[in-house]
Amino acid sequence: MHTPLTEPPAEAGADSLEDQKAAITRLGHELRTLVETTVRTAASPDTLHRVADGVRQVTAQLTGRRRARAEIPEVDGFPGGPRMYSPVVGAGSPLAPPVSITPTDDGLIGHCTLGLAHEGPPGYGHGGMSAMLLDELMGQACTAAGTPGMTVSLQMRYHQPIPLETPLRILGRVTGTDNRKVFVTGTITTEADPSTRLVSADGVFIAPDPDRARALFPGLREEA
Ligand SMILES: CCCCCCCCCC(=O)SCCNC(=O)CCNC(=O)[C@H](O)C(C)(C)COP(=O)(O)OP(=O)(O)OC[C@H]1O[C@@H](n2cnc3c(N)ncnc32)[C@H](O)[C@@H]1OP(=O)(O)O
Predict the structure, then answer these.
(1) What whole-number distance in Å separates Cα of residue 118 and Cα of residue 182?
(2) Which keywords belong to this entry (predicted)?
(3) Of 103, 124, 137, 199, which is most buried with the most CB atoms under 10 A?
(4) CA-based nearest residue to 108, from 169, 151, 149
């Protein structure tokens, strides 16, 4: 029997958004497991070639309808809601740890564990990953405070290396505003020792004016 390799066109309304999100989340989990397993494996070249052939066939099943660059998918909560494909918090992203976020009275706390796929120095997190984690948490802290903005400056300080395979806590907190500028701080610690800063950052975020936001995000729904 012939099995089609490409996805048939989606029927409008055929699946609920919740079904779609659940499926995206499940695939994201499997892809993250594949990525982490790939960077740890000591499999032979034969095995790696066989797996590469299999992955190519799997990829071919997802090349049906694809979104355009600036299109915001229906499952995406931008702005303000959960981002399914964010490389930091996206349940559907193989790049994301992913970070889960808890609001507090004093900003946001993110929780995640980095794996070998996020390695910088052997056994420790990549400095760019730390910047990405803090940029996201600090950006989301702006949104949670009612002043969404985009990063214009992020001053990073690396105090100690970030251990891999260790639960981490990422804080983002708005410290002040000046017209469209939002001043934000952030830290990364381990969950086990939240008083020892491993990485800290100061950032300035700016709320684009509505015309600028419409030009930057043409896919933004009008009510947002
Ligand atoms: C909207 C919500 C989006 C949430 C997404 C969260 C994602 C996570 C965070 C990110 O990854 S954001 C991606 C990385 N950041 C960017 O790509 C931003 C690139 N920068 C821009 O597109 C524009 O700079 C921006 C739209 C943010 C602002 O442009 P505007 O034309 O609205 O700003 P304008 O030039 O009018 O400046 C407004 C004020 O900001 C100040 N400013 C601009 N750049 C600055 C800078 N680098 N540092 C400090 N202040 C700065 C500027 O001096 C001015 O101050 P005053 O009001 O006091 O005169």
Answers:
(1) 29
(2) Apoptosis, Cell membrane, Cell projection, Cytoplasm, Fatty acid metabolism, Hydrolase, Lipid metabolism, Membrane, Transit peptide
(3) 137
(4) 169
What is the domain partition of the chain in residue ranges?
A: 100-216
**172 in Cβ contact with 141 (< 8 Å):** yes
| Nearest ligand 1 atom, CA 206 | 27
| Residue 34: both structure tokens together | 């594949």
Q: Of ligand 1's atoms, which has the minimum distance to the CA of residue 209?
A: 32
Q: Enumerate long-range contacts of 80-85, CB under 8 Å, 24 or more apart.
A: 80/143, 80/148, 80/224, 84/21, 84/24, 84/25
For residue range 29-66, what is the model confidence (pLDDT) as tens digits? 999 999 999 999 999 999 999 999 999 999 999 988 88
Give the CATH class of 100-216. alpha beta
Q: Closest by alpha carbon to 166, among 93, 107, 113?
A: 113
Say yes or no to pLDDT of 9 above 70: no
Is the ipTM of this structure higher than 0.95?
no
**pLDDT at position 13, please?**
54
- Decide if 159 contacts 136 (C-beta within 8 A): no
User: Model confidence over 99-143: pLDDT tens digits?
Assistant: 999 999 999 999 999 999 999 999 999 999 999 999 999 999 999
Over residues 71-84, the mean pLDDT reads 88
